[in-house]
Amino acid sequence: MKYRLIILFLLTVPTLFAQNWDQVLSKDGITVWTRAVSWSDYKEFKGETIINSNLENIISVFDDISTYTKWVHNCIVAEQIKRESDFRGTRYTAIKAPWPVKDRDVVFDYTVTQNRTTKAVSLKLIAKKGIVPDRGRVRMTYMISSYEIIPLDKSRIKVIYQSHNDPAGSVPTAIVNQTLTDTPYFTLLNLKKVIASGKFKKTVHKGLLEY
User: Fold this and answer.
1) I need a surface site. Which of 25, 42, 82, 144 has the fewest CB within 10 A?
2) Going by C-beta distance under 8 Å and a sequence separation of 6 or more, which residues neighbour residue 47?
3) E strand or H helix at 76, and its extent?
């Protein structure tokens, strides 16, 4: 199954990157773009900001599943399903949807890799089927997301959050379009607040190289 997901990711990347980005928001030091995907009814989004932090703290927040409901936009449930290492595992999240749309959930594999030269860290999230039984929400089975965590110096990190997914079921276009702006904006805004507060479990990830 993992190999099938990797193949899917490799096949879709050229198509996703063939489109042009349109800027839709710039506020609070956060910029958001969207672009059409030729084979999908839904657009892809990308958000970017700079956070005052080092790599270890940002990776600690991503690693601390208990913080997800504080910074991932509209996240109401977050669970660790399987942990293979500090840099690989499977998680479950549920997302609150506005009435009358039913809440969504997704099970995804995540992997964390680092460029040993630039020290940039890449976090990939890819939805998968099975593992977690139905919980009364609409299950999303297609999601390809990434966080690119790029150190600019010892205390500033550029974070680029990018995602393309299918919300599954029936969702009004207006809600989908609003989500494309709100999700990256509020997720990055909340991430900055959590980092600034220091209220997360700080951990040491063996093998992670600081800038």
Assistant:
1) 82
2) 30, 31, 32, 33, 160, 161, 162, 184, 185, 187, 188
3) strand 75-85
The rounded distance, in Å, linking the Cα atoms of 148 and 152 is 12
Which backbone phi and psi does 81 adopt, to 5 degrees?
Answer: -90, -45
**Would strands 30-35 and 44-52 be described as parallel, antiparallel, or unpaired?**
antiparallel
Distance CA 146, CA 169 (A): 23
Q: Are 20 and 35 in contact (CB under 8 A)?
A: yes
Quick: pLDDT tens for 127-140. Answer: 999 889 999 999 99
Q: Specify the residue for token string 């504080």.
A: 70
Smallest CA-to-CA distance from 98 within 16, 19, 176 is with 176
Q: Which of 75, 149, 59, 151 is nearest to 108 (CA)?
A: 75
Q: Report pLDDT digits (tens) over 55-86.
A: 999 999 999 999 999 999 999 999 999 999 98
State how far the Cα of 111 lies from the Cα of 207, in Å rounded to an integer.
Answer: 14
Residue whose structure tokens are 């600690």: 60
Answer yes or no: are the C-beta atoms of 141 and 168 closer than 8 Å.
yes
Location of structure tokens 């700080």 = 202
